[in-house]
């Protein structure tokens, strides 16, 4: 019997963990790397192989998923000491799932390809629950050879893979636009829920009405529930959108585009981060608006 293919997942946050679980469910051999010992223990309990370094995880892997937070971390786990490139075999497919500026993605891809690797620019969307069920959306660009080798692993973690071009960079461009909308929609959700609370509307009733009305969005349906429940456990943290909307506004300025809504949303996320909410769920930006409006949302009772 042929041995199952080995896949590495570097970074086991909410999305990376979902990818690892989905790959295990599809009968891949999964190695994983993360800085948190408790997460590595969870991976071992789930049937994967925990690794202390990216180089250990990538050894003999057919494909490597990169799910770290930002481009600096991606560069470190790929090219730094103990990075995946130290042990990866030529022809290994690296799937860059981290949300990065397109220019950063292209730079990393160029260096990986120069070392004989295959690269797919593969940022993802869909949230923690879809990651856990293997139903994320992948916004992918890369060579035909890379897709051919990684297709079964991509199928295991996703419901839809959009192939957007034959070179890395396009996937990151599309993800950047997705994050513009996502960040603005979260900020708008926070504003709407705060205004409702201030004017005395029951938040659950409002949610039930709006989620089936024209003003709804995926982010309103998802983050609105968090605000109603006062549940700010981080699925995607405030600081993620400080980073992602920072990419949006910087790339817009570089290209001569105007993004006023993204800029306003970015200021709100920055304010929330400065107030100590950076590691809370990104819906916590509602707390900033609530305090300014003199209203207490669920989960804010007793907070200064």
UniProtKB/TrEMBL annotation:
Pfam families found in the cross-reference section: NAD_binding_11, NAD_binding_2
Ranges for domain 3-hydroxyisobutyrate dehydrogenase-like NAD-binding: 169-288
6-phosphogluconate dehydrogenase NADP-binding domain sequence ranges: 6-165
EC number: 1.1.1.411
Keywords: Carbohydrate metabolism, NAD, NADP, Oxidoreductase
Reaction catalysed by this enzyme: L-threonate + NAD(+) = 2-dehydro-L-erythronate + NADH + H(+)
InterPro entries: 3-OH-isobutyrate_DH-rel_CS, 6-PGluconate_DH-like_C_sf, 6PGD_dom2, 6PGDH_NADP-bd, HIBADH-like_NADP-bd, HIBADH-related, LtnD, NAD(P)-bd_dom_sf
Domain of life: Bacteria
Protein family (similarity comment): Belongs to the HIBADH-related family. L-threonate dehydrogenase subfamily.
PANTHER family: 3-HYDROXYISOBUTYRATE DEHYDROGENASE-LIKE 1, MITOCHONDRIAL-RELATED, L-THREONATE DEHYDROGENASE
Protein task: Catalyzes oxidation of L-threonate to 2-oxo-tetronate. Can use either NAD(+) or NADP(+) as cosubstrate, with a preference for NAD(+).
Protein name listed in UniProt: L-threonate dehydrogenase
Organism per entry: Neorhizobium turbinariae
